[in-house]
Amino acid sequence: MELLARSFLLxxxxxxxxxxxxxxxxxxxxxAGREQGRSRRAPLRSAAPVGALAERxxxxxxxxxxxxxxxxxxxxxxxxRQHPRSFPARAVVTVRRRRKEDAxxxxxxxxxxxxxxxxxxxxxxxxxxxxxxxKGVPKRSKRSALTGWYEKKDVKSERVVYTAEFTVDxxxxxxxxxxxxxxxxxxxxxxxxxxxxxxxxxxxxxxxSWVQPTxxxxxxxxxxxxxxxxxxxxxxxxxxxxRHELSVLRGEEGxxxxxxxxxxxxxxxxxxxxxxxxxxxxxxxxxFARPVLGGHQLPYxxxxxTGRPKTFTDERAESRVEYPEPTxxxxxxxxxxxKNEMLSEGALKALLHNFMPLLVSSVSPxxxxxxxxxxxxxxxxxGLRLKQALxxxxxxxxxxxxxxxxxxxxxxxxxxxDIIKKDKFAWLRDDEFARQALAGINPVxxxxxxxxxxxxxxDPAVYGPPESAITxxxxxxxxxxxxxxEALEGNRIYMLDYHDIFMPFLxxxxxxxxxxxxxxxxxxFLTAAGTLKPIAIELCLPPMTDGCRRAKRVFTPPAxxxxxxLWQLAKAxxxxxxxxxxQLINHWLRTHACMEPFIISAHRQLSAMHPIFKLLKPxxxxxxxINALARQILINGDGVIESGFTPGRYCMxxxxxxxxxxxxLDQEGxxxxxxxxxxxxxxxxxxxxxxxLIEDYPYATDGLLLWSAIERWCxxxxxxxxxxxxSVLGDAELQSWYAEAVHTGHAxxxxxxxxxxxxxxxxxxxxxxxxxxxxSAQHAALNFGQYPLGGYIPNRPPLMRxxxxxxxDPEHAHLVADPHRFFLSAxxxxxxxxxxxxxxxxxxxxxxxxxYLGERPDEAWTADPAALAAAREFADEVRRAEEEIERRNAxxxxxxxxxAGVLPYELMAPTSGPxxxxxxxxxxxxx
Length: 927
Known about the structure:
Residues 228-927 form the Lipoxygenase domain. Residues 103-225 form the PLAT domain. Pathway: Lipid metabolism; oxylipin biosynthesis. InterPro entries: LipOase, LipOase_C, LipOase_C_sf, LipOase_CS, LipOase_Fe_BS, LipOase_plant, Lipoxy_PLAT/LH2, Lipoxygenase_dom_3. By secondary structure, the chain is of the alpha+beta class. Helices cover 36% and strands 11% of the residues. It contains 32 helices and 18 strands. Strands 2, 3, 4, 6 and 9 form a 5-stranded antiparallel sheet that branches. Strand 14 and strand 15 form a beta hairpin. The longest helix has 33 residues, at 561-593. It is elongated, with a radius of gyration of 30 Å.
């Protein structure tokens, strides 16, 4: 049953008030900041009054005075004589409660409410943007307790508003920060704080953070105003706070610094780097060990450090925390309740989808394979039906199977994937096989053939002659009367080339039980109608001997029954290669793993007040948590990816090979990638500055709409804060962010000459455009079609179990005698199929709390009107892009997205409802 625990995603328990060691803390802040010049932008009023935010919350009115008096805290300031000129101010604090609480948590909530009534309250303090000239430290208000916690203990609303009253000296200045000291026993989630009563208007503080109790962290939490400040513009009263907060997040100060080399607690907020040394478990045996990714031998991006102890048998490997036990990410990166609910709703379905096939295969090994295509179809029509004889066996061994069978028919049945809804047999057609290279799950590997024949870059001394075995005679009859030279000149031949990425691993892959693979090349011809047709497939193996006839085999469109089935098997091997490259390289490596260092560095080097951090924040949501879960159950040794894809235990080594040989940030933007693959050429006369060589290329045409919107948004935003090259070069936090992401987060490639410069506003806008593209549109295009387009396994098998037989082989006779059964036996088994389908079902699902491109639910994320205006224009442009995509999908002239049995291309359509929709572009890598 171990397979069950790793084959689907379930919510991970969060640190809901987990106890921690109480550590000593000294004075909060004791250093004085030097005087700084005022910001070049005048103080800004809040975009929304507090009433507009508070009226949406259903709460019980708070009493005017608290019941009970709070005893003085040992680290509270001594009461001081009020200035004769003072005024009242109020902080309105929105706390988000869990919608569902277990009994233990409900009791703890009540205990905290009674403790609050007795004086163990939550204390707030206002910090001014100004320095007290007499003391040389930031001006601070007296601490004030939140009122209403006890009175609102039974309020059922998800959001509850509390207030704290202050009397503030008239010379206080503007509030720039609020500190929160939690003297309850449990953590709580602060959504926002609004301070009103100051002459400059309400001050907004976007928090969205867990505040730990003093028994976990004696130091107060600090939240900064939503006014953006570049480092040199930081008001003097906030200078030390800004420095200290970043130091805490790096683990250099605060409670985390006391145990810098130790294991991180779930309540910590520390961001550090580590290599991928936790994918295997050598303590279980050599077959469970996996190499470390990151370093000279296997270069790889860095991941979030957890600090767990090393394994007993290998000091290089970190001990694992097996799912569902949580692994460390910074506390605020845990899933919110809505995300956990989405995963919980799919948990029973995932359990049953995996449990029943395991039972069937364990009791009756002879039906591990599909007997016919009707068995595959029945997964969607009836679910996994059990024959009477098999039922009787299961009922005798496991009595509760009957109840599962009777009470969960809907859950046992899989949703019908979109790919076979409109045309059940579309996947068999060559035109559909080719169309999916332009509008499928993995539309980013198709490239224009620029020289014939294709040539490998691998060492010929090891892998044989580099030239492809495809000759002009193989394809000349498929070129509409053109010669190969004419077709190349006219940009009419295209290729999927998976030769070099698979070839170094084939001997090891093919030695695995039930895994068979080739290095594949597929050539396509661009027809006059603007569609592609496959004209040749080459299947390559490392040569065993000179002139080995099995080393390179070429298949062309069939002319008879036997060659038709050989052609179908060849296409299936191409799809298996494509699935592996898609998942291991284009999806995981490029949009998950390579983005993690930029996210870690952003939290370590960019203050929450930094305008670039404010821009990046929605595009970093959930990514670290998703990546941590992936290390537990997806990319780990013997995990879902190894179990489900052809490379098996060599999956992550192949990903590291691609990182070393292929990945470079300067070619990750959409225009650069299209040009690199020969799919486009620069053309200033075109709307996006590019001319696509295949005009109806849905991924590219829709992608350019979103790329251009992101590009204009980033350009306008950067121009608001950086008027010159010097302003970019002089921003210490910005330069540290990028330098650390490159030199530490991508340490194995830090000396590469292609890293983009960060010297001008244009450089910065370009870098941000690429990062936002990768975390939003690129990830969406590669992720949310996995079940709708890949859930029908014959269309896109993730692994193959048989090589294509040669004439004269015993297996060739089996193919001729029973071709459809031979074909199905080459595809994944029943258990492999249902496990894979269950996982991609979850990975393709949008949660109800998804935040889509152009959306920012937090209306007060910045107080800068210029940034807000640019954000509104960006949202409008994204909406216009969505309308254009709808028009394109209704255009019968676009045959790669419209026609009989042809699916519309909606993976770049920005919005979506929850569930599996095959559309929707979230802001970030959220699944």
